[in-house]
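Example record for the data management plan.
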Amino acid sequence: MNGESCRRGIWVMQFHELIVFLLFIVIIWYWLDGMRAKEVARNAGSQACDQDGVSFLDDSVVLEKVSLRRNTHGNMTIFRQYQFEFSSDGSCRYKGNIEMLSKQVMHLSLEVHRVPPGF
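Corresponding structural encoding:
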């Protein structure tokens, strides 16, 4: 009986280690997936600013919200909402928003702003 409980203790310890390892893998995957999504959002914001003739400020986006939502196929996926700033004249900052499902941009909007001269 003593040997059996010892073996059970080792198995539980190994199971515990497996759970910790899997949790570690999920955390790394979530972090890497978030970095890739942030890069897609940054590129989308920069391109939208270029198309509107405004300056994409700080070359960055900020994560505002993360949740789970269903995609068009009914599968649960990660929804992320990012915010960025841009300027049309160099003196005023305006906000832009990007909504993404997984790594696909679903909606991008720019706050009402002054139209740059000559555009």
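Summary line stored alongside the record: The CA atoms of residues 79 and 101 lie 5 Å apart.
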